[in-house]
UniProtKB/TrEMBL annotation:
GO terms for biological process: cell wall organization; peptidoglycan catabolic process; peptidoglycan turnover. InterPro entries: Amidase/PGRP_sf, Amidase_domain, NAMLAA_amidase_2, PGBD-like_sf, PGBDSf. GO terms for molecular function: N-acetylmuramoyl-L-alanine amidase activity. It comes from Sphingomonas kyeonggiensis. This is N-acetylmuramoyl-L-alanine amidase. It catalyses: Hydrolyzes the link between N-acetylmuramoyl residues and L-amino acid residues in certain cell-wall glycopeptides. Residues 10-147 form the N-acetylmuramoyl-L-alanine amidase domain. The lineage of its organism: Bacteria, Pseudomonadati, Pseudomonadota, Alphaproteobacteria, Sphingomonadales. The keyword Cell wall biogenesis/degradation applies. GO terms for cellular component: outer membrane.
């Protein structure tokens, strides 16, 4: 099933049956002080959390839940009309202390494992680029991960995720309410509008995450709504 990737197995009891076919990949950071703590939590029945895979900072990949089962990684979430994101996704936890414990860039070894892992899963289920997302994309009011330091560019240039648009950028001149409508059309839960804008920026304009709708945000979102967004080459 996998080519070239080596897996460590640490089965978690925290899963149940899928109710939907797999159409998404959700990327997370562990947000804990160590990989060991994260692994222990994801295998603790009392914690009721898990993921299909965990990628350590040295690039090692641990398999916790079989892909045909529903791991408990996304929580209350929403993307493109899907509200049972756990049923429709494969969850990958990437070891990083996160914003609460000393957020730092993801290692080259990690990205060297994340990229082929995402590529294999994406191909296996014919997942579209627009459905390779971060936890903050599917739960903007609750989550920040994998965060503004995650290298989406590396995935996008291999067509494993949507690019940050860089060409033919035009300002549609939407009022703020129009931007929010477009953001919802793109896939975000906009019930908390500022959180949704912030999540969009964290993903597509990580150098300035302020929750404010501006011309650049409008230009980026319009380009992403076109059939073939161009950028990240």
């Amino acid at each position: 099933m996998h080519t070239g990737l080596v897996f460590l197995d640490a089965p978690s009891p925290n899963f149940d049956e899928r109710a939907l076919p797999v159409t998404m990949i959700v990327l997370h950071y562990t947000g804990m002080e160590s990989a060991e703590a994260a692994l222990e939590r994801m295998r603790d029945p009392a914690a009721k959390v898990s993921a299909h895979y965990m990628v350590d900072e040295d690039g090692n990949i641990t398999r916790l839940v079989p892909e045909d089962k529903r791991a408990w990684h996304a929580g209350r979430s929403h993307w493109r009309g899907i509200t049972d994101v756990n049923s429709a996704s494969v969850g990958i936890e990437i070891v990083n202390p996160g914003h609460e414990h000393g957020y730092r860039p993801f290692s080259a070894e990690q990205m060297g494992s994340v990229i082929p892992l995402v590529a294999e899963i994406k191909e296996r289920y014919a997942i579209t680029r627009g459905n390779v997302v971060g936890h903050s994309d599917v739960a903007p009011a609750r989550k920040q991960d994998p965060g503004e330091l995650f290298n989406w560019h590396a995935l996008a240039r291999l067509r494993l995720a949507l690019p940050r648009p860089t060409r033919n950028l035009l300002d549609p001149g939407w009022p703020d309410a129009g931007f929010i409508m477009a953001l919802e059309r793109f896939g975000y839960d906009v019930s908390d509008e500022t959180a949704a804008v912030t999540a969009f920026q964290r993903r597509f304009r990580p150098e300035l995450v302020d929750g404010e709708i501006d011309m650049e945000c409008r230009c980026l979102l319009l380009a992403l709504l076109l059939p073939k967004p161009q950028g990240d080459d």
